[in-house]
Design a protein that fits this description.
Blueprint (H helix, E strand, L loop, with lengths): L5 H38 L14 E5 L5 E4 L19 H11 L4 E2 L2 E2 L1 H11 L9 E8 L8 E10 L2 E12 L2 E12 L8 E5 L8 E6 L8 E9 L2 E10 L3 E4 L8 E8 L2 E9 L4 E10 L3
Antiparallel strand pairs: 1-2, 3-4, 5-6, 6-7, 7-8, 9-10, 10-11, 11-12, 13-14, 14-15, 15-16
Length: 293
Amino acid sequence: MKNIEPRKFFIIVMSTVISFCIILAIILVFLLNNQGEKLQNYNASPTANQLPDGQAGSAKDSDDSGGLSVSGPSNQTEVPTLSNIVGEVDVRSINAVLSAQKYTLINDGVLNWEKVAGFIDNNINLFVPGSCTIVSYCMDDLNNDGTRELGIMYEKPEGDQKYLMFSAIRYENGKFIKDIDSVLKQDGYSVQLSEVVSGDIITGGNKEFSFLQKDPEGTGTSMIKVLVMVGRSFSEFYTRDSGPELEVKDFDHDGRMELYTSSISEDIIHRSWYKWNGKQFVEYHSEQSSQQE
């Protein structure tokens, strides 16, 4: 057998490879065209993605009653509900500013919280986007670790609705961390009557954040939500709907916070003061008077 020149051998190999690729491409095109025709015929079937009356729809799994539910496309915009409203607090922006200015906030290598408090006062709007508005905020060292936690209440617009939001933020390892960011109330509130306060209302030694939303008309209901710190993170602990008036402060000057509420029935105003007894709030004093007084 004569030796084949390398050039001729290379040409033979390349011709074989190219021929194989062309044949493979022809086969793939044939298969794709055939599959496309099947798919087109399937979509045209009234039992596939169309109902017998021509309404578009798609079959879903059977519901609990054993029936088959069918849903179709809708042009309606989804109405926001309390369950799908997402909080808007973002700690990244203020952490970036804090990192850039940290050397102006320390004394002898230790973070000075009086300076940090002033920093937060001047930059509080960095916690929420421009579409939201800060309603109230409170800073306090709740767990006595030398750093202060931050409770924020803000208003978030969503379509035609407005939502009163609450958020709890702590400082750890040189940055702010968001633990809670949720809805307190949808519409029917007054930003002037909503506030965040701190104090030991759930008696146990440490302070808590209390978020207060009060009825603007003075005839409906108000709400209090108390957040406690478990370890180093926040947890929702107590929620209560109350009368139009709602306050948290040290009413009897015993060094601890109490809860005050009021309600109106038949033109009679009922006023009540409560203390936490380890399991719940218990009324320790009450008064009533006529609205005419």
